[in-house]
Amino acid sequence: MLLDDQLCFGLYSASRAVTGLYRRLLEPLGLTYPQYLVMLVLWDRGAVPVGQLAEALQLDYGTLSPLLKRLEAQGAVRRVRRPEDERSVLVELTEDGVAMREDARGIPTAVGRAMGLTRDELAETRAVLARLTGSVAAVLATPADG
Amino acid sequence: MLLDDQLCFGLYSASRAVTGLYRRLLEPLGLTYPQYLVMLVLWDRGAVPVGQLAEALQLDYGTLSPLLKRLEAQGAVRRVRRPEDERSVLVELTEDGVAMREDARGIPTAVGRAMGLTRDELAETRAVLARLTGSVAAVLATPADG
DNA sequence: AGCGTTTAGATTGTGCACGATGAAATCGCG
DNA sequence: CGCGATTTCATCGTGCACAATCTAAACGCT
């Protein structure tokens, strides 16, 4: 029942440390880490509805709506209601948002370097964490006990 | 530059999934995950000053002060200024706080099961993440570039 | 003793993260 | 066609997480 014996705390610490690293790397771009994740999806896929962002990032509207509002306020994205379905809001990059991609080019490798892991360790850990996330999500998906 | 290719996103997702699992497990105790981490330290060490909690959890006063205030409001801990150094605040368990330990007994194994990893994978991942956290922290400790 | 410095902690402001609720548009079924 | 159900998104409230600022107590140096 000790703190450092539990993987959870390691996970929690590592996640916060990495977020802190992104904070420094993204500060020149004026982005936070979750905002950067949204930009990654948009750079890859182009315009997507809010719901697809929510699914890709596993975040709910309560988190994404104000986040997208801030991204829009700073001119990185635009939100447009889709004419063929007025419920849906399409999030698309502005020119500034497209241009940001250049400024963010070096970030993934910088983060990779800072982590100080071998290529194999990176891949292995990524795979294990994906399995872990899936397993935990499955447990959480069962309504009552777990 | 894809989302799922990056360990960071795996880390971020896994951390949030595990926190969600704790949310469910801790709900009967009326604790959040960070509050539970504080309780773990107190159950292990007894009364400690706020600064030691901050160091153990790698959180700053801005996070801990209100968190401890809430823990005190619900009767799990007490905060007492130390007479021999009035700057320092000692956080100690109340009787209710001590008693909570019993209710929390099953949580670590429940989490371990939900993660669905082998004992070796758990240990290995914990070790890799500790190294990663240290490496990132070292980079962040260097003032400007990284 | 006097006074600047350091230390321990609290407070404030911003931005996630999530549960709960609400509102509008669309769909489906009789 | 009418109307309840579903889908899509926004809003609100609570609780982290962190940077910046502030306060008060203790320390150190002359």
UniProtKB/TrEMBL annotation, chains A, B:
Tell where it localizes. Answer: Cytoplasm
User: Keywords on this record?
Assistant: Cytoplasm, DNA-binding, Transcription, Transcription regulation
Gene Ontology MF terms in the entry? DNA binding; DNA-binding transcription factor activity
One Pfam family of this chain: Staph_reg_Sar_Rot
| This protein's record includes keyword Magnesium | no
Task: Tell me where in this chain the HTH marR-type domain is found.
Answer: 4-134
One example of a Gene Ontology biological process annotation: response to stress
Q: What is its main location?
A: cytoplasm
A GO cellular component term found in this entry reads: cytoplasm
Entry-linked PANTHER family: ORGANIC HYDROPEROXIDE RESISTANCE TRANSCRIPTIONAL REGULATOR, TRANSCRIPTIONAL REGULATOR, MARR FAMILY
In Swiss-Prot or TrEMBL terms, this protein is called Unannotated protein
Q: Source species, please?
A: freshwater metagenome
